[in-house]
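Q: Fold this one first, please.
A: Sequence and structure below.
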Amino acid sequence: MGYRVAVVGATGAVGREILKTLAERDFPASEVVALASGRSAGQEVSFGDKAVLKVQNLEKFDFHGTDIGLFSPGAAVSAVHAPRAAAAGCVVIDNTSQFRMEPDIPLVVPEVNPHALKQFSKRNIIANPNCSTIQMVVALKPLHQLARIRRVVVATYQSVSGAGKEAMDELFNQTRAVYVNDPATPEQFTKPIAFNCIPHIDRFMEDGSTKEEWKMAVETRKILDPDIAVIATCVRVPVFIGHAEAVHVEFESPITEKQAWEALREAPGVQVVDRREDGGYVTQTEAAGEDAVFVSRLRRDPTVPHGLAFWCVSDNLRKGAALNAVQIAEALIAQGLIAERRAA
């Protein structure tokens, strides 16, 4: 027995990572179907070390008989096809921003709020949070359980892979252009990304924040606690894979560094690497390809009565997208919310 799984957006960076993650974790699938737009139909994508899947046309695919749909095709495509899949009985786990803030759709990080999965049957859709939010709330959850969090100030250092394959190509091409003295004209970003940092991710909003910064605030409140205040500054940096965050947390009651270290070391999904010496911390390069959320540079923040600061790093394509989606599917099975129905 097993589950029939559809991976939507299978030719994209996240879709390929989902296929890789399903194979690595030996997900109990009786069949895995790769779906993408009509122009990608017929292409081949890898599933595990040996299997190769031929991509099928999403627009023509019938989701009846499909148990789980792992969606990462872009918000506009999910808006059309996720409800269509859900209506056909497929449980949709959507990695786009389309459904995250809809009140009757759970927004889930399995290490943080797995109980929210019980709400999925209202729409048959579960939303995967923003990549930068996921890694932050995984690190915040064990601290919030010790001393309730009042306020979070975070600055992110987000890799270009968060903007897709074309953005990764732009960083590569611009970096090469610098060395051969060619012009580096930005197309995917508003300014050159090679050897540069851009404090602008997603569109600007009326209050001067960007949509990415707004997402971190509202998603944290929906996932972790509606009373937490969050202010974010989100920056695109010339790194291919991996997001980093400098996080400053103000608590309602006292919390010591030792208490925080112990809680983080015991927390699921967190790995503490915090030696107060040269190189005693994790960077984006080291986090690439890893499942964990790495926490380093934990220390007291003396500017507020009960404050801590830390450095947080994770692979945005894995825990920030593919792995979290697959973990949601695994949690559905573990909680008995979706039953095996089809023989392998």
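Q: Good. Now the second chain.
A: Here it is, same layout.
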Amino acid sequence: MGFLTSYRLLGICLLFAVSAGVAWQVQAWRYGAQLEHLQALHAAALSQQQQAEQDKRLALEQQLSASDQQHTRELSDAQRDQAHLRDRLATADVRLSVLLDAGDSGNGCPMPATATPGSLVHGAPRAQLDPAHAQRIIGITDEGDNAMIALRACQAYVRAVAR
């Protein structure tokens, strides 16, 4: 009986070891399946995040393109208007004038405080500018207008990118 009991005990130990090994293997398979499932979920989430980032970038690029077109159109319109004004100044179609201080008697050029009869100018006395000076003034204002349009374009770009 001692001999048979030792075999039984050995068989039980062997059965226990085999079942522990099988249980260990089943757990490893389950863990592997869970890892694969988590990796698939992570890959899907990463793909969605990348797509959302691409969509955001595309929307920003479209917004910047539309803004660039608008500012280019504004600049073109301003340049066209400036060229038209310079042409009108050159042909004496229009004249630039400045307001004079009627109370300043030290200017050496007394001007009447009221408009002369038949004059189109009403109100304070004005003096016409020399056409060459008028052209230089228009050139300066052209540069200022262009700078303001460029500044608005830069501000719009920074606002769009900062979002």
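Q: Anything worth noting on the second one?
A: The first strand starts at residue 97 and ends at 99.
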